[in-house]
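User: Need the bound-state model for zinc ion:
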Amino acid sequence: MRQHKLALCKEHYLVWVPEQTERFIKKYDMFSHDERVLVAVSGGKDSLSLWDILVRLGYQADGLYIGLGIDGGIGYSSESQRLSQEFADAHSQTLHVVDVEKEYGQPIPVLAERTHRGFGKPCAVCGLTKRHVMNRIARDLGYDVLATGHNLDDEAAVLFGNTLVWEGSYLLRQGPVLPESPGLARKVKPLCRFYEREMTAYAIARGIEYIYEECPFAEGSTSIYYKEILNQLETARPGAKLTFYLRFLEARRNGLFREDEKAIRNLHPCPNCEQPTSAPGLCSFCRMIEKVDQSEILGE
Ligand code: AMP
Ligand code: FES
Ligand code: ZN
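Assistant: Bound-state model below.
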């Protein structure tokens, strides 16, 4: 893991991941051991790994699978449901299943077609439906919190997209925890600081069977394009993706860029050159020159 300057064997990796997850759950105040967690599982590596980690950490975590009715020639939905159910059975966990077609009359692709939303792609209708169902089940079945498997690559890509157009209201809401509000359950993303590769490694090392295929409608999506761009950046500068996300959280915690404004207002003239500086006493330039002069005197 170049981004952490860390290399672990399988045995220690399988300890490190849950330890880190526990640390993030506490750091961001996501939930406690007394609370009931509903994990939204898609049958993919992230959400199944998340469920696995929470169960290993001793949390009360049930699963929710939403049958979207997407086939794409690979039986995408039925296969991901099968894998989710297999995981639940193998670990003696409860999986709630909501079938969109059974409950709302039509599968996602038909709902999308009939409503003419999303320019021939069902992703917008799908996202809307998933958010609605997750929230409904969390509320109706009395869960305290809803957890999704979003990883760092997902979060960084969303952040990148929102930043490109300075989408203020979304930027203010994006984060590891979205607090409960009237009619909406608290939402958490315990894996938001793990690279996608790290979750793949975890799922494989744990022998979790997950669906390798992406949703057939994801091809050519903007989010995949942003992920590719961020991966190029990451290759050239390991850790860039994590820094991008973490520094955003930090900036937002400080009231977005208000702290920087305060710093600008707190400038004072340097006693030597009179150019503005935020450093106490001499400005950075004058301090640098002072240092050079001193080392010359000392004959270094
Ligand atoms: P995605 O929107 O496919 O990137 O998935 C993000 C997260 O949403 C996953 O990690 C899951 O936690 C959740 N999720 C996605 N699809 C489903 C589904 N069909 N049923 C339940 N949860 C899902
Ligand atoms: Fe919803 Fe692909 S359109 S998962
Ligand atoms: Zn100066």
